What does this fold into?
Amino acid sequence: MEFSSGRARQKHSRLGGDRRELYPHSLQFYLEPPTENVPLVEFESFAIDRLKLLKVVENLGVSYVRSSESYRTKLESELRKLKFPYRALAEDDYEARRKDHISHFILRLAYCQSEDLRRWFLQQEMDLLRYRFNELTDSLRQKFLEHVNLSFEAISEDLKNELVNELYTSTPGLTMTKLKEQMFYKVGLADAVDLFRARRVFIKDGFAFVPLKDIDAIVLNNYRTKLSKALALTARSLPSIQSDERLQPLLSHLSHSYVGPDYSVQKNTGKISLEQIDALSVKSFPLCMRQLHKALRDNHHLRHGGRMQYGLFLKGIGLTLEQALEFWKKEFIRGKVDADKIGNNYTVLCYQSIVKIRCPFRHSDPELLKQKLQSYKIPPSGITQILELVKGMHYQLACQKYFELTHDVDDVGFSLNHPNQYFAESQRQLGGGRELKKELSNSGNSQQKSNSQESMNSNSTPTSSNTTADAELEGLEAYFTED
Ligand code: SF4
It folds into this structure.
């Protein structure tokens, strides 16, 4: 795969008609990397779309039974929305197939970098393939098997009738009628290890007799082996990829990636007052920010990372610069910090700081997490569900569950990616805008007023006010960079 400017894409489009044969099936094992030039803009957008897709696959896999109608409908709609092949039957979906192919290989590069990333990627790709394979018609399934060299021999009707009793007793989940309708395949034992181990298949003369309905297990097993090997190989070639200065930032961004809106762009500036923060931290902050807020209130101090993360979060929920100055100043004066050192590099943090956040679901000892949740009055059944999700390493889903329990909703209806997203959704759920406005007009109005007055320089000595603000900003920077 080469990377290029937009011109190469035009050339590629002209050749598109000739290259349809590159993707004879909407489904693939991604055995060969793309050989065409990929414009950098496309490179990034393809990768982000696939990441979105895999995150949806992860969420659905935890929230729904994989074979259920809801799972399939939701996944199909996501594939359709992101313009990946969503119906194996669609004939003319060359662009979608190409996007599928290229984006898989880009994420392979980004997600081969550590054991955790590899495991996550493998799991989501397997689930995606399982869904797509099961959506194929019988004849397309057969074609695909041949295409990936898994062309197992179907046994004859005569042989099936001869073995009917053995097949019936050794193949769970099939009534006699269904068994008679199913095609059975002779599969080498090495390809049917999982079915064999689970005692779900009839074995004779070194072959497993696998019904069509279980062929997906074989296909997935085969795919898993191939993809794990490929990821290990890609990881070995990382040093050369990492030396590409155009590629490396993109790849590392993707593997930490967060794919929602940019919350560093303030939309709600000035809509909340400092007096509201304590109440909001209980109602609308995700657990990570609730803890930081509490630690700050209790100790009047946060360590460097915490200050950065919490500062950025507060900015994202709409604190103005003046409010931020006042907020941190009050806390640190209480904490006997030299007032000159009150600082804030409020405008320069990037969201990457926040994705490296210490997530309490991920980093807390389960027993401590349990106690914390109990102290927040989360019901025992909810705590059990959260701890189960944590055990399965589904930290964001644990956070979503926490949201459901604290907002009394059955389904959050969004896929969580960012602490500020949590806040925004919470406010929406609680009728946020309205509620905030009401609170503002009652109690916090004075705060709001003073902020807008400040920003309009109603201070009697505007010049000295500016100078003070400048000095404070300089000091803030120092504060935020010390530990
Ligand atoms: Fe915070 Fe994200 Fe963890 Fe939720 S999942 S507690 S928002 S870091």
Observations:
- Residues 286-288, 357, 359-361, 395-396, 399, 419, 422 surround iron/sulfur cluster (CB under 6 Å).
- Confidence is low (pLDDT under 50) at residues 5-16, 337-355, 439-483.
- The chain has three domains: 2-136+222-254, 146-216, 274-481.
- The first helix runs from residue 7 to 15.
